[in-house]
């Protein structure tokens, strides 16, 4: 029997576990490739021919989402059924169980638990910076030409 293609394998996974859209699996696969390339570029990192840990993959998936979807990252991921880091772990281990990805003896679903808060990771980078609280006396408020006329006429 012929081994199913990547797409066929994902379709089989989604039939068995419909929590996540097929695009979520494609994204995680692309995110793994992104993470491997990212780790190879890091001259201070460990050798490039090694296994990617769950925490490294989470960081790579976060960076990849921000690069691909920008301020829509959280919305896109939620549309695919991904609402927390543990969901990435479930997707990875569904792919491991199907033989699409490999794992080491040390790899566990729990490696993805509590990785980061999705609002902090995907929304906060796009929020405007909060201005420092300032005292707003009449002398340090910005003034329009009309407000200057009004204040001069009251003197």
What can you see in these coordinates?
By secondary structure, the chain is mostly helical. It is built from seven helices and no strands. The protein is 53% helix and 0% strand.
Q: Report the total helices.
A: 7
| Shape, principal axes of CA atoms | globular
| Sequence of secondary-structure elements | HHHHHHH
Strand proportion, as a percent range, falls in under 5%
Q: From the alpha-carbon coordinates, what is the Rg to the nearest angstrom?
A: 24 Å
Number of strands: 0
Secondary structural class: mainly alpha
Biggest sheet statistics: none
Architecture blueprint of SSEs:
Blueprint: H1 6-16, H2 22-41, H3 54-69, H4 73-79, H5 85-97, H6 118-123, H7 145-153
Question: What's the short story on this structure?
Answer:
With 155 residues, the chain is mostly helical. It contains 7 helices and no strands.
List keywords for this structure.
155 residues, mainly alpha
């Amino acid at each position: 029997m012929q081994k199913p293609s990547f797409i066929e394998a994902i379709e089989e996974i989604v039939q068995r576990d419909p929590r996540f859209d097929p695009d979520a699996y494609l994204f995680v696969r692309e995110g793994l490739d992104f993470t491997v390339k990212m780790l190879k570029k890091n001259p201070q990192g460990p050798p490039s021919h090694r296994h990617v840990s769950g925490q490294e993959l989470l960081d790579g998936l976060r960076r990849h989402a921000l690069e691909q979807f920008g301020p829509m990252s959280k919305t896109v991921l939620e549309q695919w059924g991904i609402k927390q880091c543990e969901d990435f772990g479930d997707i990875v281990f569904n792919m491991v169980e199907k033989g699409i990805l490999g794992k080491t003896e040390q790899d566990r679903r729990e490696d993805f638990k509590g990785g980061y808060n999705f609002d902090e990771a995907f929304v906060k980078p796009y929020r405007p910076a909060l201005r420092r609280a300032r005292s707003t006396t009449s002398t340090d408020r910005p003034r329009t030409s009309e407000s200057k006329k009004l204040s001069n006429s009251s003197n």
